[in-house]
Each structure stands twice: as structure tokens, then as C-alpha cells.
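Input sequence (85 aa), recorded before submission:
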Amino acid sequence: RPGQIVLRTLAQLANAGFDALDDDVADAAGVDTAMRYGANHPQGPIEWAGRFGTARLAAVLATIAAATGDPIYAPSPSIAVPEPA
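Predicted structure, C-alpha cell format:
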């Protein structure tokens, strides 16, 4: 399951980034900048989620939450915001 570990990690990082948006910790650019410069990530979690697809991200998180029974994986409310057309 090595690939699943990577997806689970990236999905949870993105979920935490969206939680920060929901909690008004920072805006999307601020969350991404903090992860790029503070944690040396190649792209921020919000940017990554946009490339991955927020609907797909929400589905992955919901699947992990159901499989593990751990509510920490429940998709952040702002992930459900429709993507721009």
C-alpha cells in the first residue's frame, strides 16, 4: 500500500489546509506560501488540491474516514465548494 500512504498524506495535508481556511487562519495563498517556504513543499496544499480536483479529494477523504473510522479524515466543509468551470 505504499501509493496509498502517499495519497493519504497529501489528502490530509490538503484537508488541514482547507481547515485553516475555514478557521480564518489564512487565505489560500497564505496557506500555500506557508507550506512552500515553511515546510519546503514543492506546492501548497490548496494548489495541490486544485490540480488533483476538490471533488476527487473529498471522495478520497470520505473513503479514508469510512475505512479508518477516524473523523480527522472527514472532508473539510470548504472542500465541497464547487470548482470554477
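Checked by second reader. The CA atoms of residues 52 and 82 lie 14 Å apart.
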